[in-house]
Design a protein that fits this description.
single chain; about 325 residues; alpha/beta; six-stranded parallel beta sheet; 13 helices; about 20% strand; elongated
Amino acid sequence: MKYIYSLLIAMSILIVSCSSGNTGNTSNSENDLLKIGILQLIEHDALDASYRGFVDGLKEAGYEDGKNITIDYQNAQGEQANCVTIGQKFVNDKSDLILAIATPAAQAVANMTKDIPILVTAVTDPAAAKLVADNDAPGGNVTGTSDLTPVDAQIELLSQITPNLKTVGLLYCSSEQNSVFQMDIAKKKLESMGLKYIDATVTSANEIQQVVQSLIGKVEAIYTPTDNMIAAGMATVALVAEPAKIPVVCGEGGMTMLGGTATYAISYYELGKLTATQAITILKGEKQPADMPIETLKSFDLVVNTNMVNSIGITIPESLYNK
């Protein structure tokens, strides 16, 4: 009987040991997947394109969700409190890398960890947003790509498509640092051209229609930068600007097609792919964010909303298409 009991005990130990070993192998396999958390501020064409470009860029390089990486994508729906909650989740989950899309999202995450590598995109000036020490030498755990658009060229475009232009309405959210930065550039350009401007700022999406209406009769054209709040509300801008025959030059192409008139735009999809290239460099351990300069796209294209152009009755000079 003692022999039988001993044999049963030995077999039980062996079964438990094998069972534990199998569970351990499954867990290790899951743990081998690199964790990437993606926080996007709000849904609109530009930010959505950045996200798609990032994921596609990773996939083209062999980093595929569920295969050798796991992507946790979260959208904050424009709420700063959600950015904080999501960012804390990524930190608690011990993500291997975090991508923050848009300035408020980036600021929320950057304040939570100095250890996890953070990439930002669709941020106009990371240094001005206090995300990095310097755009050329970040010096911390944050780097990424800037969506700085050709503001000077956009203002020149506005003057080329607007007959008898004297005053421009500058439409933006006053609490978005990236918008303030771009507007400073726009104001200097307008002043150099001898043109006047009126600040038309909003603090919530509910104010857009009223603020645009306040510009009627005061301006001949409107300029709005890559502003997340205005981008999400371009249909409202068009609702007022189109019947008033006021051309609107936007900071990016998606905004233009949703209600603007024309612009010189970068590709946010390509910006996302550029950010993916940075991510791969970090994931491979080849470089750290501190030593990776903020990068920008060097090319841009003329984007024209022909429906709006025809509706408000302006002409895009043929020479602009040939640049």
